[in-house]
Structures are given as C-alpha cells and as structure tokens.
Amino acid sequence: MEQYLSNMFGLKGKTVLITGGYRGIGRALSVALAAAGAHIILTIDSVGGEYRFYAYDLSSREQILRIVPDMIAYKHDVDIFVHCAGLQHRSPAEGFTDEAWDTLMNVNLTAGFQISRDMENTGLAQKIVFIASILSFMGGFETPAYTATKGAVGQLTKALNNEWMAKGVIVNAIAPGYIETDLTKALRDHGEKEKVILQRTPISRWGEPKDLAGSIVHLCSKASDYVGGEIHVVDGGYLGR
C-alpha cells in the first residue's frame, strides 16, 4: 500500500516552480509539495528547508519574461509550474483606479499566462496548476478586478489544456473558497459579512491554507494524469448552497 501511494502521489525527483509561495496559500502549497518529495523553486521568497528562491516583480512584464530564461540559465529542469501569486484590492467599481486594475491583471492573470507560454515553448513543465477562486464562478462585491482575473484564470485553464494536453502538458486549477489569509482579513474583520459567509458554508468554518494540500499534491502527481482543464473547488461546500 505504501509503495502504491508513493508511486501515485509521490513527487520525489520533481522540480516545482511556484509563484507567491512564501505566505498564505502559496506557503501551504509549497510545504505540501515539498513533503511529497518535490524540490521547490519560489519566485518571491523562501520558507526554509529544501527551497531555492528568486525575486521577481510579477507586475512587471519585463521581469516576468526573465523567469523562464533564468530557469534555463540556472539549469533548473522544471517539471511543474504553480501560479499562486495573487493580489486583492477592494473598492466600488466606480472608484476603482486604473493602476490597481492593471496591477491585479498583471499579477493574477498575465504573469501566469506568460510563464506558462514560455515554459511550453521551451519544453519545461509537464503539469501546470493555476490558483483560481470561487469568484471564478461568482461576481463578488467590490472586487471587480480580482473577480475578472479569477474568472479569466478559470477559462485560461481550459483553453491552455485544450491546446497542450495532447502534447504532454496538463493544465488544471484549484478554486479555493474563503480561506484565512491576508487577502480575506477585511471580510473576517467585518462581522456581518463574516456571518453571512459562515452561514452559507456547510462546514461552518473558514478554510485554512493547509486544506488545499491534498488537492495540489493530487493535481501535480501521477494520480491526476487523466485530469485536464479541471477547476477543482475547495470551499467547504460553499458553492453547493
């Protein structure tokens, strides 16, 4: 049994490049992948252990386009790419600034596409996982840019998988629900909004970053070799209501 599980879900010998892997959800994903045996390359910061990190500004196209050439130059044979970097900015749509819009688009969406494209063009990464959101399926409130990017991430997942799965590059996404991170602090501090969220969530609690560990290991491992273009929801049952 142990050998079977190791064969199906183990990531020993695999190298994972993950954006935004130093805190919140990204940190939990990095820890889970490392525990499954993967070597982790972080593009933002280091969380200790068997990790290597490089700093890039993912709101800058010039820096985004350096990432894959740098991986090749440093001789990192990346097997898996996880785009977890993400920003949130809450504001009514009529007051939403162009600067905030552009920054969220670049970090949440464009960076993931450009890195994935460059990896496919250079033969890196057999598996790609984007971090979407339950707002990939919902409109949200006072989060026009975040909702737009996460909706696009969901569709990008399907579009890229349609093109690349037959060529050996599998693309999937994880859509977290309401998770305790810095991005959701404003909601947790707002008593009425938090109450509404918990009332709708069948498990009756906020998610923790570690609740996504099983999903990321599954989607990065051999166990998911026949899974493509999937947006895997991890939300405590929220969308089922």
From TrEMBL:
<dbReference type="InterPro" id="IPR002347">
    <property type="entry name" value="SDR_fam"/>
</dbReference>
<dbReference type="GO" id="GO:0016616">
    <property type="term" value="F:oxidoreductase activity, acting on the CH-OH group of donors, NAD or NADP as acceptor"/>
</dbReference>
<dbReference type="Pfam" id="PF13561">
    <property type="entry name" value="adh_short_C2"/>
</dbReference>
<dbReference type="GO" id="GO:0009688">
    <property type="term" value="P:abscisic acid biosynthetic process"/>
</dbReference>
<dbReference type="InterPro" id="IPR036291">
    <property type="entry name" value="NAD(P)-bd_dom_sf"/>
</dbReference>
<comment type="similarity">
    <text>Belongs to the short-chain dehydrogenases/reductases (SDR) family.</text>
</comment>
<protein>
    <submittedName>
        <fullName>2-deoxy-D-gluconate 3-dehydrogenase</fullName>
    </submittedName>
</protein>
<keyword id="KW-0521">NADP</keyword>
<keyword id="KW-0560">Oxidoreductase</keyword>
